[in-house]
Structures are given as structure tokens and as C-alpha cells.
Amino acid sequence: MVASKLSQASVAIIITSTRTPRVCPKIANIIKDMVEEADKNETKLSLVDLADFKLPIYDETVVPYQVPSQASYANEHSRRWSAEISKHDAYVLVIPEYNYGMAGSTKNAIDYLRNEWIGKPAAIVSYGMTGGKNASEQVKTSLEGTEMCVSPTRPQLVFFKSDETSDIFTAMHKGELGERSREIWTTKDKQDILKAFEELKEALKTPSAENRN
């Protein structure tokens, strides 16, 4: 059951990139720090790293919507992912954009489950060379397909670039976040990130939130 009070609500900030190297964990930590400072302990925030679950391309013999009423997951990785997502009342998905689209790991993680997602609020924060607009739109469509309530504000974090350099190269090749990008995201983009989280919290307060499984 989803908690009826915000102070009891658990929000998972999900690191959806599983590449090596990767910068997604650093971005997720920045978002967590930013939100925690503004949230003042109204919710319980947790980082969830998709890479820890080592999900292969979906390999169950049942369809996710059948679980748990008609069937069960056979594989341990599926059960672990299901249990983790079931623990939380809402989610912030931190997503990369690869080749102008969502990462395969992001789509696979969403599609592994169905009933664990239904009716819950989610916010999307994308990042990439141009901010991850395409990936954000695709993830929104997938989440809404699982009947989730997606925050209208979807921050898009653009890596700093100049005529001489671009932070995206150190992100891709070393998994490091450039200081100029960090500075921009924690100042110029901060308002949108906090707005998306406030929208998520408002969704948690709606009457339908009381009855989510």
C-alpha cells in the first residue's frame, strides 16, 4: 500500500544507465542532493541502481501483467527487480539518451514489470548532448502505457560545450561530469528539477494514491 502521508512516502531515484563507464550515478546523486535539500524530509528518498539487478532482455515465460494474480516470476533477477520497485511509492527516472532515443536498459527495466508500476507517480530527468528530449518523450509514453502518472515538467540536462570542448566526451569516455555542466544543472536547471519533484509529490497526495497496490 502507498502511504497516506508524504512523510511516509518512499521515492526511488532510479539510475537507468548500465554502461561502463557511465555518468548517470553522478547525475542521480546531484538530483538527490538537490531534492533532499528542498524536500526537508517530507519523503524518504533512495537511490536505486539498475546495474545492480543485471537484468537480461526479458526472459520470463509469463507476461508481466499476469504477476502476481495469475503467475509468478521464475527468475531471481525478475523477483529482485519486482521486489525493489514494489517497495516504493513513486519514482524519479534519471535517463540517458543514446542515438537520439531511450537506452535499451531503460526500456527493458520498464517492460519487465506491469502491476508494480500501475497508478504510481513518476518524474523523468533526461540528459544528453541535446538534453535527451527524444528519450524523455519515449520514456513518458512507456510509463503512461503502464498507467503511471508522469510529472508534466521533464527536465532535460544539456552537457556544456564550447568551441574548444564539450563535457559530453569526458562523460562518455571516463564517466566523469564536467564542472561547467554541474554548475549549469545545479543553478539554471534546478528550478525545473524541483518543479518536477513537487508535481510528483502532488500526485502522491491525490485520492487515487491511497488505493495503489
From TrEMBL:
GO cellular component terms, semicolon-separated: cytosol
GO MF, one annotated term: FMN binding
SUPFAM superfamilies the record matches: Flavoproteins
Domain NADPH-dependent FMN reductase-like, residue spans: 11-152
InterPro entries assigned: Flavoprotein-like_sf, FMN_Rdtase-like_dom, NAD(P)H-dep_reductase
A Pfam family it matches: FMN_red
Domain of life: Eukaryota
Record's protein name: NAD(P)H-dependent FMN reductase LOT6
Native source species: Trichoderma asperellum
